[in-house]
Specification:
By secondary structure, this protein is an alpha/beta fold. Helices cover 45% and strands 12% of the residues. The protein has a 9-stranded mixed β-sheet, with helices on both faces.
Length: 411
């Protein structure tokens, strides 16, 4: 409390000097206006420090993983201070794509064939200038999975590559079929429940760089796909560890949240139109199996999935697809260390649907839950262009697993 009073004294003093020098005396001459501004500012600071800035909740199923994270990843124990002027979840979600910088990354593109005759576009950041891992054979590799309509050019992916580059790692981005400008060779795209393309990519990376540690990080739908893969693979995976960010753990709850009036206006309709635009780009090959005009009339993501996604992947009903796409009931099958970051105010993944009890039953799973941060937001600092809380979690966890991973054996 002494520290808080001290900070408030400095705040009010600095604010007074600013107002005296920059605001017309006519308003503050009586002192009433100045008192109102200072009072409001002090109240806002008190509210922010007491109700907004909080330490995250760390939920794990075993003391060993918990101790490992707290010892080697200090970010999991630090107070998260969201950007004070945009800490609300929806605002963070909306602002992040526009305010965060996009570091320049030069990729090497590779197309790989799939068993069904399709193709997957991979963007490699080889990091041949790596100082810490000059030997390409042993250079750690991080596989990155973007969100629903995301590609290797998303700012959060570029930030992860920037963090990885500083550590000397190699990265590869899995662009889902048809989203990064490539042509669809078969009438098939992607979904969170189907992990065949991910399995193909992991096998390729492992065969190409068999001596290098392989880790993965998935964001939003990419995180759901990664989690579903880990639940299915168990110990039969080449991944040493994984990180999952802003995943929608229960698709039924996520869909219900996104269909609330404000969320539908801000997010649902826009994402539906993005999905429809992607389908329309590949109309020539997709219309052989689907009624594209019917798909284009969908107003929500649920309607889109009913008319397109669930049918494409052979589900009898959309409910059956949503059940298969939801990782929340399968976490007991995860057999490698996984750190999952979510914000309680994420409208894409509401807090009441977090798999807290499931995480408590699995020593390989850790949930890191913040009060604020929105969906892939996690902005911090006064002008959050260059780094987010999510970036720091990613960097510390990846580095710790690669350098101290032996401590996680036999969780």
């Amino acid at each position: 409390m002494i520290a808080l009073d001290f900070n408030l004294n400095f705040l009010t003093r600095d604010l007074s000097l600013y107002l005296e020098n920059h605001v017309k005396v006519a308003f503050f001459g009586s002192g009433v206006g100045l008192s109102l501004v200072l009072g409001f500012s002090a109240a806002y600071v008190c509210y922010y420090l007491s109700s907004v800035a909080k330490k995250p909740q760390l939920v794990t199923g075993g003391e060993k993983f918990c101790h490992f994270l707290k010892e080697h990843c200090p970010v999991v124990s630090e107070t998260y201070y969201p950007t004070f002027w945009c800490w609300e979840g929806r605002i963070q979600t909306l602002i992040r794509p526009f305010i965060t910088a996009k570091p320049w990354v030069e990729y090497r593109n590779e197309f790989i064939k799939t068993a069904d005759g399709g193709q997957i576009s991979l963007d490699w950041f080889d990091n041949d200038d790596s100082v810490y891992y000059p030997d390409t054979a042993s250079r750690p590799t991080i596989l990155l999975l973007p969100g629903l309509t995301g590609t290797s050019r998303e700012s959060y992916i570029l930030h992860m590559i920037q963090q990885s580059a500083a550590l000397g790692y190699r990265c590869v981005v899995l662009n889902n079929r048809g989203v990064s400008g490539e042509r669809l060779l078969t009438p098939r795209t992607y979904c969170a429940a189907n992990t065949e393309d991910l399995e193909t990519v992991i096998d390729l990376i492992q065969s190409t760089h068999s001596s290098a540690p392989l880790l993965a990080a998935g964001v939003s739908m990419g995180g759901m796909m990664l989690a579903n893969y880990l639940c299915r693979a168990g110990r039969e995976t080449s991944l040493r560890a994984a990180a999952v960010f802003s995943a929608a753990w229960d698709v039924f709850e996520s869909t219900a949240s996104l269909e609330k009036p404000l969320n539908r206006f801000l997010f649902n309709s826009y994402l539906t139109s993005c999905l429809q635009a992607s389908v329309n780009r590949h109309r020539q090959i997709l219309e052989k199996l689907f009624d594209i005009d019917h798909v284009m009339k969908a107003k929500t993501m649920r309607e889109f999935d009913e008319r397109f996604t669930s049918i494409m992947f052979g589900y009898a009903t959309n409910k059956e697809y949503y059940k298969a796409a939801s990782p929340c009931h399968k976490l007991k099958s995860v057999q490698i260390p996984v750190l999952c970051l979510n914000a309680a105010d994420d409208v894409f993944s509401p807090g009441h649907a977090f798999p807290v009890e499931a995480a408590k039953q699995n020593p390989n799973v850790a949930l890191l839950l913040t009060s604020h941060g929105g969906h892939i937001g996690f902005l911090e600092g006064i002008w959050p262009r260059h780094s987010t809380y999510m970036d720091r979690v990613f960097k510390q966890f990846m580095q710790t697993v690669i350098e101290q991973g032996s401590e996680l054996e036999n969780l």
